[in-house]
Amino acid sequence: MSVNTSTKNRLAVSGLLFGAACWGVIWYPYRMMEEAGISGVASSFYTYSIAALIGMVIFSRHWRGFLDLPQSAWWLALAAGWTNLSYVLAVIDGEVMRVMLLFYLSPLWTLILAHFWLKEHSGLKGFMVIAISLIGAFIMLWQPGSYPLPKNDAEWLGLSSGLGFALTNVITRRSTHLSLRVKSMAVWLGVVTMALLMMPFQSLPFPAPEVFTMSNWLVMSLIALLLMAATLFVQYGITHIPVTRASVLFLFELVVVAAASYYLANEAMSLREWLGGSLIIVAAIFAARVEEGIEAASSSRPRFPAK
Fold first, then answer.
1. pLDDT digits over 11-64, tens only?
2. Which residues, in sequence order, are CB contacts of 236 under 8 Å at separation 6+?
3. Which pTM value belongs to this model?
4. Nearest 5°: CA angle at 77, between 258 and 194?
5. pLDDT tens by residue, 87-115
6. How many H helices and E strands in the chain?
7. How far, in Å, CA of 122 to CA of 34, rounded?
8. Is 199:251 a contact under the CB 8 Å cutoff?
9. Quick one: which of 188, 193, 172 has its CA closest to 228?
10. What is the dihedral of CA 25, 30, 33, 35, to 10 degrees?
């Protein structure tokens, strides 16, 4: 391995761990904004608007490419927009670790979408991932005298965020022609668009920019910078290391969330929830290996340009 390749691998691993750590603690400043009377939709709108504006400045030399985007970029923006917005709303109001574990059912949805949409057949191993994921979710969500379903809006949002993440992955897989700049801008502008669509359904009034204090702007700017860094570092990481290794590194987010939710929010999970969550994590690792096998098989076949 050359020095250059070794350096790229270290940067890729560091980028993925940094991104996982960012997403593992980003819920806390969003909760601070909620406690200050700023809803999750409003804070998401402003933080992602700041990220998009900074991105427009950084990528100003590439405006011509942004003016002629393919349809897949718009679908990516909508899917990624809902993924990120629903995640923020879920972790603000719900138990963070339960929300995260429901989000990590996303490999299950990815396999199903890839099977029916991309015609990628994962075989027996794929069915094992689905079975392990569902058993883990059943154990975690089971309550005496009720169906094993999410128990509140926050958990439903966490589940839908994982589904949105799976959809984002499948769209990204079909959109290899999109650059890192386009993908990043699609994520940031997608959240802004989704927040605008959600505004009429909010009980709290949408705050105008002039009502924010300097501390509010500092917190939102910090969130925006973390979001930008996490997006760019993660995109770099998944470009330079195998999908299996990247997926396992992403699970570092759960370690960060577990520690942060315990020390910052005094949240702790029961033994049953840990057992169900452990099965979901095992399924996520196994799913990464299944996807790597699918990609290895597809790389050996002739490739045709996407329509």
1. 888 888 888 888 889 899 999 888 888 889 999 999 999 999 998 888 777 655
2. 11, 12, 15, 180
3. 0.81
4. 75
5. 999 999 888 888 988 888 877 787 777 77
6. 14, 0
7. 42
8. no
9. 188
10. -80
